[in-house]
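Support request from a user on the community tier.

User writes: "When I paste my structure tokens into the form, the page sometimes reloads and wipes my input. The last time it worked, I copied everything first. Here is what I submitted, just in case something in the input itself triggers the reload:"
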């Protein structure tokens, strides 16, 4: 017998329509690239999203077409988050920090039809435009008076496009499993892979993000999104804020401590989300200038493990509750969060800190288990560690164009590549990274790509890259190279060589030479051994940083 309830399709457009209908005056505040503050609200945003929907259709964008963005966190980017999926197309957010060649690869792989870009990125896109084989036009996210001289062809002005359209559009209702947005994850091996979210997965994830036991975003909140909109749908916050009418504050490109602090004070931010690196900048600024952030009730920190000292500083010195969260691009991204359970408030501070430093506890919608190398489930005793496997309606089941092949195991579990423990309370703690990527400021640097590039130098026989701790960026790369016979290549020459091939922020902070590298029996470089050998090695940039801050 089937239930007799409505089968309303879960549509992303319904989130913004709700916000406009019930919380029309709630603001969306953005710091623009010229530093000025822009204010709008959900009512206006809904109208503009409807104009944009018409404009996209007029450009010929059809259901399933991919439309890309290379943009900061601001109100226009927010509008594309709704208008593009709203008409049935797919919003492909591209990380501008990728190297040009990587952007070309993913834009061509995704077959992006149009590209929205903030003015900052015009030179970047100009430098690769000839290689973008599917892009038919560029939409510059600015007003007519700001349109720059550009070599890009078929360039359009965002505000002109909107001005020409009606602000009434009937959002279509279609199958909730239709693709809505696309985000590439810079994998450890092989090419970047596209994670393709659906309307259904996004709306269900939205409900989860709003949950009181997760991030608890509510109408009274003012949320500062310091996590980029090009990373995993900004942790789902644009949709969750719309779903409850929370006020949003977007910092644009200005992530320095002083600028963030100014916004927090001026706008009365109550909840802020970001990676530890950004928090470090804010804390340093507050400590040096005797500032406070008393409006902030809680913060969600994830993307990489939160350092204990940061957790204590935020809680003890600034009265901000810290929730540690774990997730991946493939998990929309919320997988676990660290809100304490009933009764745990009574525990002493050290015990509470230990619990909060774990990556978080299971939340409804994400099943978790850990397995050994043979796929056998391990006990949830907080001691045994194995690969974390997850399952749920907002977890990826494959990548765009089946890149990487079949992803799930026979029972439908997604292997995360993270090695973790699970305790009897359902808390997960990452103990190791199966992948060897280097996490710098919340962004990934692929050690394999750096190694391969370095080995392209004729003076290098073998190379390995490992991440070493860095006080500002969390981790930075160290390149360990073995010279080829007769070669006298220097670290400086190698860095110059790499600089022509990889993004600047990927460049190793130091290069050291070794006579040989340790290997596994199958001939792979033994990274674990390298990490031991260089465990006490301090990167020169880390020394400089400590001197500057200490
Ligand atoms: P991404 O797909 O770029 O969001 O990266 C996902 C990966 O980041 C995960 O597989 C973890 O390795 C790592 N990660 C995310 N959150 C945390 C966290 N709270 N602690 C430690 N590692 C994390």
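"...and here is what came back when it finally went through:"
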């Amino acid at each position: 017998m089937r239930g007799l309830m409505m089968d309303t399709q879960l549509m992303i457009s319904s989130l913004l329509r709700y916000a406009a209908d019930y919380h029309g005056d709630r603001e969306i505040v953005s710091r623009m690239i010229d530093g000025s503050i822009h204010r709008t609200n959900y009512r206006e945003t809904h109208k503009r999203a409807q104009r944009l929907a018409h404009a996209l259709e007029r450009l010929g964008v059809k259901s399933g077409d991919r439309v890309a963005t290379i943009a900061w966190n601001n109100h226009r980017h927010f509008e594309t988050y709704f208008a593009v999926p709203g008409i049935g197309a797919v919003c492909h957010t591209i990380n501008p920090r990728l190297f040009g060649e990587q952007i070309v690869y993913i834009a061509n792989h995704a077959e992006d039809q149009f590209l929205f870009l903030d003015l900052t990125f015009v030179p970047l896109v100009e430098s690769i435009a000839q290689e973008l084989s599917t892009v038919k036009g560029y939409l510059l996210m600015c007003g007519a008076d700001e349109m720059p001289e550009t070599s890009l062809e078929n360039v359009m002005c965002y505000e002109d496009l909107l001005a020409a359209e009606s602000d009434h559009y009937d959002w279509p209702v279609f199958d909730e499993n239709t693709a809505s947005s696309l985000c590439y994850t810079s994998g450890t091996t092989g090419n970047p892979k596209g994670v393709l979210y659906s309307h259904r997965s996004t709306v269900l994830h939205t409900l989860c993000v709003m949950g009181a036991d997760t991030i608890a975003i509510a109408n009274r909140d003012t949320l500062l999104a310091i996590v980029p909109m090009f990373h995993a749908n900004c942790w789902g916050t644009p949709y969750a804020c719309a779903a409850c009418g929370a006020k949003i504050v977007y910092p644009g490109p200005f992530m320095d401590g002083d600028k963030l602090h100014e916004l927090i004070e001026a706008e009365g931010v109550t909840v802020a989300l970001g990676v530890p690196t950004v928090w470090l900048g804010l804390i340093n600024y507050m400590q040096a200038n005797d500032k406070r952030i008393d409006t902030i009730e809680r913060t969600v920190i994830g993307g990489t493990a939160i350092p204990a000292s940061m957790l204590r500083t935020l809680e003890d010195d600034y009265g901000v509750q810290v929730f540690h969260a774990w997730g991946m691009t493939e998990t929309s991204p919320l997988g676990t969060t660290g809100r304490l359970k009933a009764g745990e408030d009574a525990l002493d501070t050290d015990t509470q800190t230990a619990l909060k430093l774990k990556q978080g506890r299971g939340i409804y919608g994400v099943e978790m288990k850990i397995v050994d190398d043979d796929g056998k489930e391990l006990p949830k005793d907080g001691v045994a560690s194995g690969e974390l496997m997850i399952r749920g309606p907002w977890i990826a089941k494959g990548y765009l164009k089946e890149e990487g092949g079949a992803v799930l195991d026979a029972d439908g579990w997604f292997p995360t590549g993270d090695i973790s423990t699970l305790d009897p309370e359902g808390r997960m703690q990452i103990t190791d990274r199966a992948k060897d990527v280097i996490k710098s400021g919340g962004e990934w640097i692929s050690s394999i790509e750096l190694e391969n590039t370095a080995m392209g130098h004729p003076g290098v026989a073998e190379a390995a890259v490992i991440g070493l701790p860095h006080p500002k960026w969390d981790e930075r790369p160290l390149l360990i190279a073995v010279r080829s016979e007769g070669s006298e290549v220097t670290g400086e020459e190698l860095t110059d060589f790499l600089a022509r091939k990889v993004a600047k922020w990927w460049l190793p902070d130091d290069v050291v030479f070794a006579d040989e590298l340790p290997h596994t029996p199958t001939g792979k470089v033994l990274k674990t051994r390298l990490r031991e050998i260089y465990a006490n090695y301090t990167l020169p940039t880390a020394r400089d940083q400590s001197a500057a801050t200490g």
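Agent notes: The reload is a front-end session timeout and is unrelated to the input. Residues 185, 232, 302-305, 324-329, 333, 359, 416-418, 430, 433, 444 surround adenosine monophosphate (CB under 6 Å). The longest strand covers residues 460-470. Escalated to web team.
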